[in-house]
Design a protein that fits this description.
Blueprint: H1 2-12, E1 26-27, E2 33-34, H2 36-50, E3 54-56, E4 63-65, E5 70-71, H3 73-95, E6 107-109, E7 114-116, H4 118-122, E8 131-133, H5 134-243, H6 246-250, H7 253-262, H8 266-276, H9 286-297
Length: 298
């Protein structure tokens, strides 16, 4: 039925002159259409033989003038659609023929999953295989393909859900890490402020300790100067007594000897030793600071 319909349409869009599908169709008032090249050539031939300004329709002999020819776009569109349908139909028919034997494909081999012609079925390649008419195979495999399609669609939906979940996790983790960064930056700013404050306090303490120690050392230095002077005076006195007469040497000799005996630097040395024991600074190490910092976080 489809073939007959195509045949009828072809007759309607065939040029009566060249008997081929119309090309750039031109129409007359009588309703007949011709290829532009065909009717133009016919019109020239008519003028040459008759030497008239008018011509006759090659089909019905309708009298017309060349200026009355007009393009028939409607027929041109029909011709174009007919060409497309014809090509599609020819390709479909070609697909329905066995490429090897050029016989119609009517059977389906279940083992190999291929469509066959009757010659293929009897060949050595498919001999003994289970074959069924294509109509039966279509119904069976249509259901299988539908089931497979449903499964694949479910897989697609699951994949889309996983993709959306991953996108949500990515956004969540990104926000979480940004918050962590801001939190730690804030905490380290606090730690920096705390350390700067602690540094200021320690420096002030060290300045105070330095002043105390230096004042103590100044005091020791003064005492040492006095002690040196006492030693110097005692040496002069002892040298003088050794040069005196017997009476001069022995007069109040116990006082001089007592002063010589008690003259010592032990007190000054002990003092300096005690100063060295003073801890100049008590800065906590990094681990202690971090423990303090963690304690503040809690």
């Amino acid at each position: 039925m489809a073939s007959k319909l195509l045949t009828n349409i072809k007759e309607e869009v065939t040029c009566p002159i060249c008997l081929d599908l119309l090309k750039e169709p031109l129409s007359l008032d009588c309703g007949h259409s011709f290829c532009k090249a065909c009717i133009t050539a016919a019109n020239k031939e008519s003028k040459t033989s008759q030497e008239e300004k008018s011509s006759n329709c090659p089909v019905c002999q309708f009298h017309y003038c060349a200026k009355e020819l007009r393009p028939n776009w409607h027929v041109a569109n029909i011709v174009e659609r007919f060409r497309e349908v014809k090509v599609s139909s020819e390709e479909g028919q070609k697909r329905n023929l066995c490429e090897r034997h050029e016989e119609k494909l009517l059977l389906f081999c279940k083992k190999d999953g291929k469509v066959l012609c009757w010659v293929c079925e009897r060949s050595q390649e498919h001999r003994g295989h289970q074959t069924v008419p294509m109509d039966e195979a279509v119904q069976e495999y249509q259901e299988k393909l539908q089931t497979a399609l449903q499964k694949v669609r479910e897989e697609q939906q699951e994949a889309e859900m996983l993709k959306a979940n991953l996108r949500e996790q990515r956004t969540s983790w990104k926000n979480h890490m940004q918050n962590e960064k801001r939190y730690n930056q804030t905490q380290f700013k606090k730690l920096k402020t705390m350390l700067e404050h602690e540094e200021k306090n320690i420096v002030q303490k060290l300045d105070s300790e330095e002043k105390t120690i230096l004042d103590s050392l100044d005091s020791v230095e003064d005492e040492l100067a006095q002690h040196r002077q006492m030693v110097k005076d005692l040496i002069s006195e002892l040298e003088h007594r050794l040069q005196e007469s017997t009476v001069g040497m022995l007069q109040d000799v116990h006082s001089v000897m007592e002063r010589s005996k008690n003259l010592t630097l032990k007190k000054q040395k002990a003092f300096l030793k005690e100063q060295k024991k003073v801890k100049v600074s008590q800065i906590p190490d990094l681990e202690v600071i971090m423990q303090m910092f963690r304690g503040e976080e809690c």
